[in-house]
Structure formats: C-alpha cells, structure tokens
Amino acid sequence: LGLLSLLLSLTKAEPAPWINITTYRLTPVNYSGITNMDSGDAGGDIYFGLSQLLLPVLCVGPELDMVWCKNRKFLSGGSAQMVYSEFVVSTDSRFGEYVKCNPDQETGFFSCTNRYSTPAPAIQSSTPVLSQNDTCSAFHMYVRDCFNGTLYKSIENSTVDECCSACGADIECLGWGMPDINKTTPTSEGRTCQLMKYPLVIWEDAQTDGHTCRAAQRTTTCWFQIPYFQKTFADVCDIKNCSCDAIDKLSMGREGEVMCGDTAEQELTTLRKDTSITSYTPKSSSDYWHCGEELNDMCGQSHGDSCVKCAAEKLDYLKRVGCTSDYINRLCNVNEAVCKDSLGKLCGPYQHNEKYCTDCEVTNTASLIESNCSVSLAEDFCHGSMQPIWRDYLLKFACLANGTWYSTQEYGQCDYEEPGGPGSKCWWKLAERKRTVNSTCVDTKVITAIQEKRPECWHGCPQPTNRTSPCFLQCLFETIVGNETANIPAINITELTNPFMNAFTDGPGGCPEIITDCQLAQGAVASPCEAKNSSTSEGVCVAAGCCWGPGLGPSPCFKKAAV
C-alpha cells in the first residue's frame, strides 16, 4: 500500500507555476481595476492607445459600426477622463483564450464575450427538433443539405445526442451525418452515425428532396483542437465537451502579436457593416479637374520643375482645353498634406460612396484648388485608395508593436482562495496596482519622441498641433511604420516603449500620478470589494470614500486618499 501511494504521488500532475506580469490599461478614470477588462504589455497598450487617435478620421461611413468606433462615446471620444494605469498581475502560467471586454452600448458597463457567448444558430425547419442537448450546442444543424462523402468512422445504434458527443470528442471530426433517420421520431435509437472529416462534401437539398438524412457541422473550434490548449489544459478540461471554463473564463486570457497578419485584416473586416449614406447633390463643376487630367496625359504624374517645363511646352494645347496659368502652377506644385487635410474635412463622410464623394469634390472645387489638390489625389480619395491608408497604418503598426493583450474575467479572480488543482476557481489575482496617470500626458511623451525623428513633416501641416487632423495623423503614423517609397524607415519599437514606460515612473520623464477617489489602504489585503471594481453597485466608491462589497457594509480595504 505504501509503494502504491508513492507511485500515485509521483504520477500526480504538479500544479502549474504562478508568474507575475506587468500590464497597462487605457481606461476611464472611474474604472480602477482590471476585473472584466482587457489590458496589455507596453507594446500592446501603446498600439491600442495611439490607434485611438486615428478614430476621428477612421470612424466615418461604414467604419462607424466598428467596435472601436462604437465604444468612443464611453472612452476617448466621449466625456470620460481617460487615464493609463499600470498593474502587476499574479497568474497561473497557463494562459487561456483572450476574450474581448467592451462597454455595453446602453449602460457603458464593461462585460466580456468569447466565442461561446453567442448561442448556436436556431434550427429553422418544419421537422421535429433533433436535439436540445448541450452536446449539440457546438454544431449547426443542416435543414436542407446532407453529406455524401469524407466518411471516416461509423457508429451504429446511435442517437443524435450520441452522434454530437462522438464528433465533439474527436479532433478530426468536422461534422456528422445520419443517412436514414425517421422524421417522426428523430431522436430514436438504431440509426447509423457517420463522422466526417475534411473536406466535407455537401449533398445539396437532400432533405428537401424527400431523403430522411440529417447532418450537422461544427460551428466553432474545440479547445482540444488547438495544440497549446490540448497540451496545457488536458488535466482540467474534459475532451467530451467542446468548451472548457478553465480556458474560456477562469484563466488569464492572452493574445500575442495582436492585430498583426491575416487575422487582423479579418478582424477589421468583420467589424464593419454596410450602412446607408445620405445622397449628396453637386452644385457646380469646374475646368480645373479636366485641366488636371489633360496635364497628366501630356506630362505624366510629374511634379515641380519638370511638370512646369513640360506644361510650358504644351501650353497652347492646355489653354485650349481650359487650363489657366494658375491651374497649371497649382497642379504642378501639389501640397499633398494640405490637400489630404482638406479632402478629409470636406468630403470625408462621403468617401465610402464613389459617386457622392466625386460630387462633393466637384462642389468644393474652389476650396480644393486653394489647397493645391491634384486629380490623382482626388481620385485616390474617392476610389478608396486613401481611406485604407488609415487601416494600413493600423495593421503595419500592430506588427511593428508586436504587442500582447490580456483579459481577466471575474470568474477566475482569487479572493481569499489559494491556487489549487483541478476544480479550483482561483487562477489570477491583482498583486499590485501601481501608478495611474493622465492619458494625454503619456500620449504626449510618446508623440514627442516620434516627432523628434522627423519634425519637418509636421511643419508642413496647416494645423501642426491638431492631433485630429489628417495631416498630423499621417505624419505620426508614417513616421512610426515608415514609407519605403519616400525612403522613410520604420521606427524602432523601443523608441515608443521607453517613453511610454518612463511615463509611469515617479521621477524625470514621469507623468504626475492621478489620485482616484479610492485607493487600497496601506497594508490591507484584497477583499471581495476589490474583486468587483466596476461601475455597478457592487465595488463602487461611495461618498464616504469607502468601497461597498457585495452584501457588505463599508469595507476597510479602501480609504479615501488625501489629495
């Protein structure tokens, strides 16, 4: 018996080690914690913070439905005082799935959603519902088609629920089919369950053509199909279930190389929807644009002295087609920064509709002439090749920053419970809340470091200090990500992370600390109150300067700090 106990103790899985991680969060000042919040390392939060500066020019037309745009009213685009906070989080070293935590569009309260937060599509069919068991929640039930290929395993005498369970527990299985199921008793036993793997072969309209087959396909990737999760969470997750709380809710979520690569483009695309746009009626036209087209035909896309020289040689023809000396001078000496700034202000809301955008440019020809706009810049703006420049900046900046984002949900936050093995709900805790500083101060220190690399760009902007103007933003992000055509090298990310992290120091280069209404009392331990930092009635600072815990009176864990 003693030898058996020894062998069992040797084979028992050792608890995963805990580690400390420093994270940062850009947040409204009234949100003092990280419960049900997302945060990031220095690179990840710099990326998120500076990207918010692009939203005034990015959030127009269809982009308004992007999550970042919808969140602006509660964050940097609204009345909230925005701050950066630095935290130290003590966490189980096994990282789960990163989840997105965003403010509710009605209340502004933050909540988190993962891939299992949306129920599986409802079965739209006149036939009896096959199953309402949780085992089938990870599948989309077909109502028209079936499968007729890619079979790799059959299970006899199976029910629908058993078929879902068998496919759900098999890494290779992408879907299942039942070639002959009785419509009147669809969950009866005695049917053959056929498990399918890639590629699925569709038998179109099989069900509507009178066949009694049924089929279902996975709607999501199960935890055990992701190698890291399969290796790391095998002792706390059940392979019979597609989801696992330890991965989806309890552990600290992590996403590396955020917004970089193919997933970033997909992420930005899926966040956008088509929206209607108000029609724009043109009021006038001008020979200026026709002159520009003819000048391009005669002299190409040349600029400066070469353009002027070519125009002089073709002057007789250019005058016959409506060109004036003033037009030629402006078209040959385009001020790209000023032109883009004017286009954005005048026609930005119509940029996603080529017709209305072009009409807007014609209507505003006089202003665009004064801004020395060229035909090519105007066409690029309305044909969509300029608007994606902001999206391109986001994607390139993401890869340059190479940041990491973290999510910390309340389900796995430790109160008084110590970390444990399987079944434990204690996966992370806030070890230290460090300094909180004004977001404008942090951004200014980072932006100043960027401007020192290429100050001449901002000197050419009509509003060199206006951080919402297209010219300022183009200078900023072009300096960050570089421009090979203009021979502008990308910045080294440490030139951003160094001033960012220095902003949190209490010394030269640091930003003044903001004293929030409630701070953790000196030497006090965390209480349930701290675990509920939010704008709800639980865990919110009250007038007396204390923090109310759920079902408790004023808690000693917080006190009002002296200003």
Descriptive account of the structure:
The chain is an alpha+beta fold and 563 residues long. The chain has 21 helices and 20 strands. The strands form 7 sheets. It has a 5-stranded antiparallel β-sheet with strand order 7-13-10-11-9, with helices on one face. The longest helix is centred in the C-terminal third of the chain and has 14 residues, at 388-401.
Low-confidence stretches: 1-12, 118-132, 262-285, 517-563
Structural class determined from secondary elements: alpha+beta
Instruction: Give me the side-by-side strand order of the main sheet.
Output: 7-13-10-11-9
Radius of gyration: 30 Å
How much of the polypeptide forms β-strand, as a percent range? 15-25%
What's the β-strand tally? 20
How many angstroms does the end-to-end distance come to? 65 Å
Main beta sheet: 5 strands, antiparallel
Shape: flat
Total DSSP helices: 21
This entry's quaternary arrangement is single chain
Write the layout of secondary structure elements.
Blueprint: H1 2-11, E1 18-28, E2 37-40, H2 42-51, H3 55-58, H4 67-71, E3 82-92, E4 96-97, E5 100-103, E6 110-113, E7 139-141, E8 146-147, E9 151-158, H5 160-168, E10 175-178, E11 191-196, E12 202-203, E13 214-218, H6 227-232, H7 245-250, E14 253-256, H8 262-270, H9 287-299, H10 304-313, H11 315-320, H12 325-332, H13 336-347, H14 354-363, H15 365-370, H16 375-383, H17 388-401, E15 404-408, E16 428-438, H18 439-451, H19 455-459, H20 470-481, H21 494-502, E17 518-520, E18 547-548, E19 554-555, E20 558-560
Parallel strand pairs: 4-14
Antiparallel strand pairs: 1-3, 2-15, 3-16, 5-6, 7-13, 8-12, 9-11, 10-11, 10-13, 14-15, 17-20, 18-19
Helix pairs in contact: 2-17, 14-16, 17-20, 18-21
